[in-house]
Specification:
This is DUF2779 domain-containing protein. The chain is α/β, with parallel strands linked by helices. Helices cover 37% and strands 12% of the residues. Among the domains are: 219 residues, no CATH class; 132 residues, Nucleotidyltransferase, domain 5 (2-Layer Sandwich); 133 residues, no CATH class. The chain is built from 25 helices and 15 strands. A hairpin with a 7-residue loop joins strand 11 and strand 12. The protein is globular and about 90 Å long.
């Protein structure tokens, strides 16, 4: 959950708190603790955080967190501005303008440790409470203190302190559902997909137990329950006029789309289990956090984490930034006020290479890398992709079929392209095509060719009554056609966009899709998303109730097991096509611009302002940068103002990613303050983005056609 309190000002080095976020960071690589605790010296690469899809997931998490808070209407947030949902006593209300971590902790302690026998203290709930024990510091989403009667106790009562971690991870409470299973078969370890969430709550409970040893500390996860249906009212839980009892809260949760799950056993297993991370030596999770806390207290922080080896974890390092200047000084002599890329610091020490050299493609940039491959290359002193040779891939290549491009071959194509580029500054981009295999596939296609792309949302909090958390909402599609006239022209044949608030679009979506694809011809998707969405919608009696039998049969034929299954172009690209500049990826967004670079036909068709549709007038998709290479059409799209076709500013930039599309749809459904102009901006952005997706599919097929004719 987002912290709405004051900015956390932790105590200065060498005393540093180990927090939940630092533990989560260190599990990917402990060396990052050096950089995360010195943000001024080592900035993060925020491109991941700013990614529209990542941002959308974060927004969904915040929405669910706020929703769960409303299930505890008596709760109070620690830190300014104090936010209470019910009248509280003066101690709670005094939680205003807290300047630092120590006062946050003091305020939390004061609230929790009041007389348990006081009537007002039978139930206290705190949001973002601050708990510290020695070098550990946590801000649990919810701390719920409950005083239970216990005649056997000296005081006649027993105090439970519930540590509740709110996560937007999908969960299904129905016994038959696999999405609710957190244990592995032997019930001795936590399933990998739930382990990060259990580790988060385990660390917090670990700290809270140390801070409040006299309380019974229990561990809980609060998750969206996909087994529950929203009835239209429980997304806004009713407020109690007084502090609710535990039964009141549990009843409210049961009526909501959330699920409160006790995870005490899972937490104990997580704390006592060995944990794997770069440089680990078989330590348990509890031993690991103790060790990290001790290392954080060292005056020479960098020396305390100097033994972490470089490896495959570096591929996704958030401290890899390529635009920082080289000061010409080694890390040991670099002033602390000089910005450095943490990634470079690690690799400089491990390899002896200079920062400028490290800006070249490294072995961790290898497509589809394995941990073993990276480790072996580094041990052999092969740090750059261009250092790899055909011999590094030879043993695998001998046993691979020749009618497809294997992942190993794809890696070698990526490497050989870089080797050629390093030897020739005028290297022309090249492509590889399994011509016979692709031709056999294309010979099965029937005209007209239909290219479809769906935009969907799966909100954690349903928009419409009768839906469950994360249930699919299909709100848009685009549809391009290529006819059998050998002119290679593409027609934007139809589109669907439903943005009316309060009305689920799924039923109308199916009708519109039937009308778009009911004629003969092959239908194409990129990846399996469209098949999954269509299968889900057709399985619902609600969304198919108004479909005729013929409509349902026609749409069902498009499924993977149907008589007219959609062809997955992404799979064909992965099997038969490689192009320089794609990094080995088969993502349509990674393939499009590189394909334009190698296709004379695409340059000819789209190299002048002649593309027209409902959303584009005399538009030119093939444009060149100052190096003569194709500018990514999605980048071109991002510079279009949806209203007046001018250059947009950051406030009105176009949707250029599926996550951005889901965010725009959320605003159209839930933001009642949107003006008509703002709605039109978002709708036009959605239409243009989705159209480019299907146009991109058609472009790549057009390029393949021309390649096969050569």
């Amino acid at each position: 959950m987002a912290n709405h309190g004051s900015t956390k000002k932790l105590i200065d080095p060498p005393l540093r708190y180990l927090t939940k976020s630092l533990v989560r960071t260190a599990l990917t690589c402990p060396r990052k603790l050096v950089y995360a605790t010195n943000p001024k010296s080592y900035p993060r690469n925020d491109s991941i955080v700013k990614d529209p899809f990542v941002k959308h997931l974060a927004d969904e998490g915040k929405r669910f967190g706020d929703y769960c808070r409303r299930l505890f209407p008596h709760g109070v947030e620690i830190g300014p501005p104090a936010r209470t949902n019910a009248d509280q006593n003066s101690i709670i209300a005094s939680a205003h303008a807290i300047p630092d971590a120590e006062e946050l902790v003091a305020c939390t302690n004061q609230i929790i440790q009041q007389d348990d026998n006081s009537e007002s203290q039978q139930r206290v709930t705190i949001f973002e409470g601050a708990v510290r024990s020695g070098p550990f510091f946590v801000r649990p989403d919810i701390l719920d203190k409950i005083v239970h009667p216990n005649p056997a106790s000296r005081t006649g009562s027993q105090t439970e302190l519930r540590v509740i971690e709110v996560k937007s991870k999908s969960y299904d409470s129905r016994p038959s559902s696999k999405r609710g299973q957190m244990w592995n078969v032997n019930k001795k370890s936590v399933k990998a997909n739930f382990l990060p969430y259990i580790q988060d709550i385990a660390f917090q409970s670990f700290v809270v137990r140390r801070a409040f040893p006299d309380y019974d500390v229990s561990s809980w996860l609060m998750l969206p329950d996909c087994g529950k249906i929203w009835n239209g009212v429980n997304n806004n839980p009713s407020l109690f006029t007084e502090v609710p009892t535990l039964d009141d809260t549990l009843n409210a949760i049961n009526e909501s789309t959330a699920f409160l799950l006790n995870v005490d056993e899972l937490v104990e297993v997580a704390l006592s289990s060995k944990v794997s991370f770069p440089g680990s030596n078989g330590e348990t999770f509890a031993e690991t956090v103790e060790q990290w806390a001790e290392q954080l207290s060292c005056e020479d922080l960098e020396a305390s984490f100097s033994e972490i080896p470089i490896g495959s974890q570096c591929a996704s390092c958030t401290y890899r930034i390529k635009s920082l200047p080289d000061t010409g000084q080694s890390d040991a002599n670099r002033p602390r006020d000089i910005t450095a890329a943490g990634f470079d610091v690690c690799w400089e020490k491990a390899t002896g290479l200079g920062r400028d050299e490290l800006q070249q493609p490294l072995v961790v940039d290898l497509y589809g890398y394995s941990r073993e491959t990276i480790k072996k290359s580094i041990e052999q002193g092969k740090f750059f992709l261009k250092d790899l040779s055909a011999d590094d891939f030879k043993s695998k290549k001998e046993s691979e079929p020749n009618d497809k491009i294997s992942s190993t071959r794809r890696q070698w194509y990526q490497v050989s392209s870089l080797r050629n580029e390093s030897m020739n500054s005028f290297h022309e981009p090249q492509y590889v095509l399994k011509r016979d295999s692709l031709r056999q596939e294309m010979d099965r296609w029937q005209y007209p060719w239909h290219f479809v792309d769906f935009e969907t949302a799966s909100p954690v909090l349903p928009y419409y009554p009768g839906m469950a958390p994360y249930e699919i909402i299909a709100f848009q599609f685009s549809h391009h056609i290529i006819h059998e006239d050998r002119t290679y022209e593409v027609c934007h044949a139809s589109e669907f966009l439903h943005t009316e608030t309060g009305v689920c679009p799924n039923e109308q979506f199916l009708h519109a899709l039937y009308n778009a694809t009911r004629t003969e011809g092959t239908v194409f998707q990129w990846s399996t998303h469209e098949n999954s969405v269509l299968s889900s919608l057709l399985a619902s009696n609600v969304y198919t109730s108004s479909l005729s039998l013929h409509e349902k049969e026609t749409l069902s034929a498009l499924l993977s097991d149907g008589s007219r299954p959609m062809v997955d172009l992404c799979k064909l690209a992965a099997d038969y096509y490689y192009v320089d500049g794609s990094g080995g990826s088969s993502s349509i967004k990674r393939l499009l611009a590189p394909t334009m670079n190698v296709s004379a036909r695409l340059k000819d068709i789209y190299g002048h302002p002649a593309y027209n549709s409902n959303n584009f007038v005399n538009f030119q998709w093939y444009q060149q940068d100052d190096k003569g290479l194709a500018i990514d059409p999605y980048k071109i799209l991002s510079g279009i103002n949806p209203v007046n076709d001018g250059v947009s500013d950051e406030e009105t930039s176009s949707v250029t990613h599926g996550g951005g599309a889901a965010t725009a749809f959320h605003e159209l459904q839930c933001n009642i303050d949107l003006s008509e102009q703002d709605r039109r901006i978002r709708e036009q952005s959605l239409l243009r983005y989705c159209e480019l997706d299907t146009l991109s599919m058609a472009m790549i097929v057009q390029a393949w056609q021309s390649f096969l004719e050569q």
